[in-house]
What does this fold into?
Amino acid sequence: MGKKYEIVEKVNRAWAGAIVKPDNAPSATNKIPLQSLALDHVYGYRTRDTRDNLFALNSDTIVYHAASVGIVHNIKTGIQRFFNGSHADDILCLTCHPNKRYIATGDIVSINSEGPCVAVWDAAAPESAPLVLFKIGDGKIMRNVSCMGFSCDGKYLIAITGDNYHSVRIYDWKAKTLLCTEKGHSDKILDIENHPSDPNSFVTVGVKHIKFWKFDSATKRFTTKKGLFGKAKIQTILCPLYIGKGDILLTGTYGGEIYIWNTKTGEAVGILNSGHSSIYGITYNPQFGLACGHRDGFITLYDVNESNGKMKKITEVNVGLSVKSLDYTPDGNLIVGTAESVIFMIRNFSKSNPHTNIELLFENHSAAKMEELWGLDGNPNNENEFVTCSDDGAVIVWDTEKYKQKRRINIQNEKLRAVSFSPDGKKLFVGSVSGNIYILNTSDLSVIKTIPYEKRSFIKSNEHDITVIKCSPDGGRFAAGNRDCVINIYSANSYKRVGTLTGHSSTVVHLDWSVDSKYIQSDSSDCEILYWNAVDLVQVTKLDELKSVRWFTWSLILGWPVQGIWEDGWGNSTINAVARDKREKLIATADDTSQVRLFSYPVALDKQPCRKYTGHSSHVTNVIFLGNKYVISTGGMDASIFQWKIVE
It folds into this structure.
């Protein structure tokens, strides 16, 4: 969960005195917009704090989750379908029914104590209402649903919760009936595996423990048996896997070994050293073999004797990123999910004729280290192209029609927070947390120029983040606002600083240029609106001078056309971003309640009606219009990009 918090602060309208109603202002309207938004694509995959959450439903379709959305993704066409609207916050775990059609997703408790909830839904019709949806216990106690598994006959759903006892709960999920619950373990449970032939048996593993469970459907009670490590080192068990009829269990360990267990006695009867680091993911198909995914990026393939668990190593391949999830397609292709939110496919990764050709299915911004995603802009000359940048150091140019990256660069040792296209779309201006600015060639993302942060005597702040950067409409200059409370103006050709606008008393958050490139308007984190003559580089204090000014964009969260965007109980910092479409018919907002909202332009009336859209699970950090086709929004710590189609 990101910056979200309970909204209690009231809107302070001290800025109302700085509002300038333009000449020939459009009439205020109290009508909901005729246009609407439809979720078209999600660029994201959650792996920061979850594993075993990527499944192949058939040869062409995979299922996974990002933010609070379940995603059914066709790997041939890139087309996605969505399970959205049932989870109030981050989906933390996902599991697949034996029929390879029903999906269960579990979430974390929201800031408003909604949830945690479990939803079971149909991957063939994810847009439909869930088959079942139920809350699990008191949200303040349970905290989350950390992992789940269906019984082999599909009747039961076992869920592990995030309470102090890591409780184990078994449901007759179709009846939404809790059959039994019991304390799981004092240490965290990390994964669950259901027995392949006994629907009443399963195993849980976690921090330095393993436990075998049996549910008595007559007495509605569990019996449990602790695993006996014997000669094996007692260590954290990360992932379990039954083979054959279930007499043998294999587990991946933190140390990188595979432990072999006799499930009847609960004893460890064998150890295989993989030669690699922690085993985070494991999958098995009798026809293709046993694949183990390691923290060091290697995937090892074994042939397994199902009668005794003995293994023979066939091959290995290095995907270069920490592996968190694995699953085979019916035709022997291995789907690989990584901690960095990248999904690969290894074709024909089979023990009989193993291939090690790695195919990148898609790559996203990473949130593996709690990185946030803020930077976003659309190409003014191509409504099918936009750019993002993130704390992960990546600048990515995206293709909205092909649903994938066109170009990517990683700027080492930098967290990136702001980005802007030049008016001709040929350059990118990128601002970093360090205060450095990078000018890139859009065509290949090569670095044209680096402008290092310049410490000046009047700057007192120790934080120099570039929070907003925008090029003037005439292409001659660009402006960068930062935590130093100043706006620096640079030549877009020589890249030299030509002036500094001082006057804000807090972080500059948003800015816009006038159509003629002569004026700038800006707002700050303390809700101050200031106006500037960008030619003379002075503050404009006579507001009448601004009535005839037309603003090329509108991104300020304060001002005459957006004064009604706050809801009751919201504070000045609840809204993170605003965008106006080029036709000046619509306003989109991004806020801390995980919503994207769509208004008719202007939003000059209190409680003006709007359309609301959910799916993000973190604070929505930015939003833009791409021509008249799309709205793009970014989630801060869900690190996901949502592509919304504008429906006329």
Observations:
- Residues 16-37+366-647 form a domain with the Methylamine Dehydrogenase; Chain H fold (CATH 2.130.10.10).
- The CA atoms of residues 258 and 272 lie 5 Å apart.
